[in-house]
Design goal:
The protein is an alpha+beta fold and 333 residues long. The protein is built from 10 helices and 11 strands.
């Protein structure tokens, strides 16, 4: 008596057979019985054929025989709830924006091997895309991973840095505390050593401006055989890293230059398309719109608007953000 196997195994055998040798349904049944010790009925083959067609396999019937054309790999049924399947093209687009991270390849392989989820299934589809202009992205990510390793060891790092405002090259010794991604740029936040004395104000450095993408450990003046060490947890707590960005627009916190600066509640009026934009996508996590969307009369008829309240530092980064909305935003005094 022939053995009973799962449909996935039968599909693999059928695909191999029909890709190399056109066969009638009787020949297929006999082949499975003689060479694979598998017994199936004609209705079972018809179900398998229907499944292959649904998976995009080009199986045709001509002159009494079935033949498979094109790719020879079976698109296996994905192990995923139906409600999540349509999220996958977006997921892979996001993953691919960080594809230079070694862990991404590992994650894709896990999805492929354990859940039959393969990004190649969407290689010819254009449902979703992500805008990301890459420049030295793989090198920058590799450097970020290296910096994080220094953080975990509590080792200070040394590098040469091109200042963004004047391109001046300067050497820094830094106790690294965080890598932050903002507007597709990676920033290093840490405390700088001046003459091997640690300054407890937090500084930021664009990772792409580190000269040659090179960092090294730094030796102690007291003991040249040992690296300069710092206690990561204690330093992060001292600079209040967890709350450092609470009232920032972007990556700049002005408190480091003037401890008297406080965040302000700022009211902004957005109109037209800008109004619908900010109601669906917050410009800051403190954003509130107390009265919701309102209507007023304009030169060309009625127009929608909303008054947005945010509590932030009043910096140039706020002005830069608002500049994107052009004349569709105004600051309320």
């Amino acid at each position: 008596m022939g053995k009973n196997i799962k449909q996935e195994e039968r599909l693999t055998i059928l695909l191999e057979r029909l890709s190399s040798k056109p066969s009638s349904i009787d020949e297929i049944i006999q082949y499975l019985k003689d060479y694979k010790n598998i017994e199936i009925a004609k209705i079972t083959f018809k179900r398998d054929k229907k499944e292959m067609l649904e998976r995009g396999i080009d199986i045709v019937y001509k002159s009494g025989k079935y033949k498979i054309f094109g790719k020879t790999n079976v698109k296996k049924e994905m192990i995923i709830d139906d409600e999540y399947e349509h999220d996958l093209p977006i997921l892979f687009s996001i993953l691919n924006s960080e594809k230079d991270l070694p862990v991404i390849d590992w994650l894709k392989e896990e999805l492929r091997e354990k859940y039959n989820i393969d990004e190649d299934y969407w290689e010819n589809e254009t449902y979703f895309s992500k805008s990301l202009v890459e420049q030295n992205h793989d090198i920058i990510l590799e450097l970020c991973v290296k910096i994080i390793k220094f953080m975990k060891k509590g080792d200070a790092i040394q590098f040469e840095y091109r200042k963004v405002e004047n391109n001046e090259l300067k050497k820094y010794i830094v106790a690294p505390l965080q890598i932050r991604l903002h507007e597709d740029l990676y920033y290093l936040f840490g405390c700088v050593y001046n003459d091997h004395n640690l300054d407890y104000s937090l500084r930021n450095f664009r990772v792409d401006m580190i000269q040659g993408f090179k960092i090294v450990s730094t030796k102690s003046n007291l003991n040249p055989s040992e690296n300069i060490k710092f206690n990561y947890k204690e330093l992060a707590e001292r600079v209040d890293l967890k709350n450092y960005f609470n009232y920032c627009i972007g990556v700049y916190n002005p408190i480091g230059n003037d401890s008297g600066i406080k965040p302000e509640v700022i009211q902004l009026k957005f109109s037209g398309w800008a109004c619908t934009y900010v109601t669906q996508k917050k410009i800051h996590h403190t954003q509130k719109i107390p009265k919701g969307i309102q209507i007023e009369n304009g030169e060309n008829g009625q127009i929608i608007f909303c008054i947005v309240h945010i509590r932030v530092f009043d910096t140039d980064e706020l002005k830069f953000l608002l500049g994107r909305f052009r004349n569709y935003v105004e600051r309320m005094e």
